[in-house]
Structure to design on (315 residues):
């Protein structure tokens, strides 16, 4: 039986110290070459309401009978920022895969931000053009600064960050803090000028118009993690070479793919590859410099477990 006095308690500041984006991206890239963890995704919430409670268990086995088990318990309350509270709040429990003993209790909010941003950054590292200079951040919530920093960590060529938000004062605050360079009012014009577009909203209606994307643009879709939400329109999925982090979560849960698949806009085989295939060299990624790429960041318990192991094992 686990003695709770022996369980590591890792708070948000310590998670941030132990998981700089570039390091976590490197961990993810290596971990995607290992056996795939068994995962579940359990989502609860009132019908017609964006509030959600989720449980994401994952079990990573190894040949020697070890491995690790983790579970993230997370709430998503989109209106919380109006009360000065984070929209995402979570805790992650990490267990030894051989004995079942609890190893750590980790602040899941900071872990989620860094996991999600590094997931997108790995997608960008493998898919975006290495000469990308302009990043457009769509959404100015709690995840936006992490996504910007993570994208810059893997694409140091980025020298301009634009930001758009439905409520401009939030975008203004990120510019004032030096996180972004300029607020844009005309989203369509900004889409046309960006090399990388990262979306992190809770929108139910598409924001990014595929007809406006320039050659070689990389679109990083993060916010539409529910089947009835979407951030990109049909033209994006028609024009882009589509990649996902994990087929299980992204294809079946993310509205950016679920909605056009159900409508018959794209086929079930529209996804070219996932991160496991890309990291293992089983797929080459984008097929040409002028090709538009789309990366659907669906998340998943396997990524939370990778992050928890990285944080716990840090020395």
């Amino acid at each position: 039986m686990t003695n709770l006095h022996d369980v590591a308690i890792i708070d948000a500041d310590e998670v941030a110290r132990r998981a700089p984006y570039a390091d976590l991206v490197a961990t993810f890239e290596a971990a995607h070459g290992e056996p795939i963890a068994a995962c579940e995704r359990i989502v609860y919430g009132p019908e017609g309401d964006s509030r959600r409670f989720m449980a994401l268990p994952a079990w990573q086995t190894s040949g020697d009978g070890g491995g690790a088990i983790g579970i993230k318990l997370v709430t998503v309350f989109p209106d919380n920022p109006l009360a000065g509270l984070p929209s995402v709040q979570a805790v992650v429990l990490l267990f030894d895969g051989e004995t079942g003993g609890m190893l750590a209790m980790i602040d899941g909010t900071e872990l989620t931000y860094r996991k999600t941003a590094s997931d997108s950054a790995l997608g960008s590292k493998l898919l975006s053009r290495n000469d990308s200079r302009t990043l457009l951040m769509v959404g100015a919530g709690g995840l936006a600064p992490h996504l910007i920093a993570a994208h810059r960590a893997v694409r140091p060529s980025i020298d301009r960050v634009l930001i758009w938000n439905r409520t401009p004062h939030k975008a203004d605050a990120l510019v004032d803090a030096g996180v972004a360079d300029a607020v844009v009012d005309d989203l369509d014009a900004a889409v046309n000028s960006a090399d990388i577009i990262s979306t992190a909203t809770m929108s139910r209606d598409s924001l990014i118009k595929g007809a406006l994307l320039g050659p070689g643009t990389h679109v990083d879709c993060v916010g539409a993690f529910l089947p009835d939400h979407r951030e990109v329109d049909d033209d994006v999925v028609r024009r882009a070479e589509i990649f996902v982090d994990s087929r299980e979560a992204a294809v079946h849960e993310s509205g950016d793919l679920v909605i056009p698949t159900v409508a018959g806009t794209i086929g079930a085989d529209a996804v070219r590859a996932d991160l496991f295939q890309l990291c293992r060299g089983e797929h080459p990624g984008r097929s040409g410099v002028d090709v538009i790429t789309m990366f659907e960041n669906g998340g998943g318990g396997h990524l939370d477990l990778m992050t928890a192991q990285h944080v716990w094992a840090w020395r």
About this structure: The longest strand covers residues 52-60.
